[in-house]
Amino acid sequence: NRKNLEVVLQQTQRCRGIVRSLLEFSRQSKGALEPIDMNKALEDTLALVSNQALFFNVKISRRLSPEMPRVMANASQFQQVFMNILLNAVQAMNEHGEITVSTRSNPESGRVEVSISDTGRGIPPEQVDRIFDPFFTTKESGHGTGLGLSIAYGIVTTHGGAISVSSEVGKGSTFTISIPAAGAAQQSA
Fold it and tell me: CB–CB of 33/77 below 8 Å?
């Protein structure tokens, strides 16, 4: 029971962080920035989602680079970004398939890159340019608000990063997040 209560407490605190992040996003505020390990933020998010029934028939492959510089970011906000992308991926695969999560450091650009790929249905080319627009959704009515990727876009760009998608109908999608490493972010400030 203690372990279950600890999970409930952790999730409650995460929900508080999400609400706070939404409020900060609406005010275009960055929130508290600290040096974070993107691998840890990803692992924490994967630990949260992998216990959900939605993920029972989904294989999650990790290709996390062990040599990752930290980034100046709000960990809760990036967990929200990863959660949105992972949930969309599972829904695009109808809860069956594979998600590959990878990280790498790009020393030439001074950036850290996170990629999340799925084996889902993909996004039609005419919709790719709109997926980060608020209230745009490819889901059926009642199955999404169209705010998840818009909020993710806002969080990433507020942190000086970029988010992009490549997709092929019938083969899946890859979302790539690029954010300045802590040293590079301080030099450009």
Answer: no
Write the pLDDT tens digit of every residue in 54-102.
Answer: 788 999 999 999 989 999 999 888 998 999 999 989 988 988 899 999 9
* 154 CB-contact burial (10 Å; exposed 0-12 / middle 13-18 / buried 19+): buried
92's tokens: 């695009």
Report CA dihedral (157, 162, 167, 171) to the nearest 10 degrees: -100
User: What single letter denotes the amino acid at residue 15?
Assistant: C
Strand partners, 178: 113, 162
List, in sequence order, every beta strand (DSSP E) within the chain. 34-36, 58-63, 71-73, 97-106, 111-118, 162-168, 172-180
**pTM: predicted TM-score of the whole model, two decimal places:** 0.76
- Tokens 């993710």: give the residue: 152
The Cα–Cα gap between 71 and 177 comes to 12
Look-up of token digits 């990752």: 68
Q: Per-residue DSSP letters for 28-51? A: T-----EEE-HHHHHHHHHHHHTT
Beta-bridged to residue 173, according to DSSP, are 167
